[in-house]
Amino acid sequence: MFIEAMPIDFPEATQPHQDDHYLILLLTSGNVILEIEKETFHCEAPALAVIKPLQVHFSTRTGIPAGWAVSCAPFLIPDALAAILPGLDIRQQYVPLTNAEDLFQIAAVLLTAFKTSCTPNRHKPAILKGLSEAFFHRILPELELAQDKTIHLKGQPAIITRQFMQLLQQQPTGQTPAYFARQMHITTAHLNDCVRETTGFPVTYWRQYAMLHVAKRLLYYTEKPVKTIAWELGFEDHTYFSRLFRKLTGETPGAFRTKFHE
After folding, report:
1. How far is 129 from 117, CA to CA, in rounded Å?
2. Do the Cβ atoms of 195 and 206 come closer than 8 Å?
3. Where in the sequence is the domain holding 15, given as residue range(s)?
4. 151-160 mean pLDDT
5. pLDDT over 80 at 262, yes or no
6. Are 115 and 232 contained in the same domain?
7. Where are the beta strands (DSSP E) in the chain?
8. Longest pairwise C-alpha distance within the chain
9. Does the N-terminal peptide bond of residue 177 adopt cis geometry, omega within 30 degrees of 0?
């Protein structure tokens, strides 16, 4: 995770590009033109914008913007927020804000904690985790409200997808698509059709995505051996887990852990 104050001296930001992480922009003053997947937003402060991993985007400053930009790997997003982000329509990724002074204060404290060197290193990760979770849970109701305003207009597929994502966050491993369909009193085929229509990916993709999130969190936050993590995720063969992790991420569990702990 990384947070920095705007405006950002990053020339590439004005050119179309993709990131492998979430980018959350919090605008406190000024304005900016933001394009996400060919949708153009004229962002006026105060406002919030969320850019998903691999979405093509760029920005153009029209007035000197102030605020914060937060970059975060998907597996570090809290479950409650992770349950709604995949189902957000592009038009729901920009949210004008009202009464957001508390959110701005949280972001300011998070930036200070991120940059300060006064905190002993052994305590800093826990402090940053707590502050970042406060930040994410504070933007959650803003995004839920934006989604609630349009989800019924988008019809049954969007509603079913949201319910599925919420169930998946509660039980991210060990359950089949048929299990989730039974919980929602629909057929497996209908569930898969709705999820694919809303997100562009089938149920099996999101099951693997959820499993990877849990695995990455355990590798990041704990010192548990890979064998133990594989067993906790329901894999009887830890070597199969390691092969699958590498197939999906391009690196072994051990390499992933080392990279984030360097």
Report:
1. 16
2. yes
3. 2-152
4. 76
5. no
6. no
7. 2-6, 22-36, 39-44, 47-51, 57-72, 94-96
8. 57
9. no
